[in-house]
Amino acid sequence: MFLELQQSTVGYKTPLIEEISTGLDLGEICLLVGNNGVGKTTLIKSILNQTPLLSGSILLEEKSNISFSNRELAKKIAVVFSKSRVPANFTLADLIGFGKYIHYPYYFNLSKEDQNEVEEIIERLNLTQYTNFPLQKLSDGNLQKAFIGRALAQNSPMIILDEPTTHLDEENKIIILKLLRHLARTKNKLILFSSHDWRLAKEFADKMWLVNSGRMDSGITEELLLKHHELLNPQLFHMSSGFIAPHISAPTLEKEMLFSYLQKNFAKDLSKFQFEYLESFWTVTVGNQQQICTSFAEIALFINKQS
């Protein structure tokens, strides 16, 4: 086991997550998921020995993490935080190249092999056109990808990413997730990826660490999702007082979108209405009346006619 937590309690003066006992091995991808403020970043900092444990221990390759120097830890774990200090007067290529300097004194020049690897990382992150851009001129999304590139350049066996897709659009998010999964499979990397978005888990992660109410539940992603139905069936909330939901028969996405539209626009009891989605249109039924609608606007018009 590369990473092992033994009865670990993380926090500051008071516990945030108590008595964690779990572990991860090389080649695995784990999504650390939980709402903001539950202790995800604190746990990551405890693994990196930046925040002391309140109790228990954390092992890296069967050796306590507190026994490693910062340089030794950097050789074992590369990390990307959601907010990182931007070095002044450096380009994107410089930043990614910094990942190599955990292996050399600061005054060394990168070898041709190292430079080729940095160029390959830049290309795989779809950042080639920004290679020589000053960091201050990069968008938040491209800057975040550059910090991820620096972590990849370290060639550490484990990579920790704390909310790394916060500033990324869907296309760039997919680029990062595919690249990380490729590294885990082909380079035997251990990836620990924190997010408040559990939906990344099903397609991306082998394992899942779910933090809730001061405890962590860990295991195979699909087994945890089956165990925690509240993740698969999130509660829909009301924005309009007086709104009572109708019966909606539709695939999850269409159901969620119709519910969203109705609860924002109708502060009334719609429980007598029934909605059914059939491939490309909605059948709306109330009493003995039925209407076929091809848009939400047509649905609204039909509802208003019944008032």
UniProtKB/TrEMBL annotation:
This is ABC transporter ATP-binding protein. Residues 1-238 form the ABC transporter domain. Keywords: ATP-binding, Nucleotide-binding, Transport. The keyword Transport applies. SMART domains: AAA. PANTHER family: METAL TRANSPORT SYSTEM ATP-BINDING PROTEIN TM_0124-RELATED. Pfam families: ABC_tran (PF00005). InterPro entries: AAA+_ATPase, ABC_transporter-like_ATP-bd, Metal_Ion_Import_ABC, P-loop_NTPase. Transmembrane segments: none annotated. GO terms for molecular function: ATP binding; ATP hydrolysis activity.
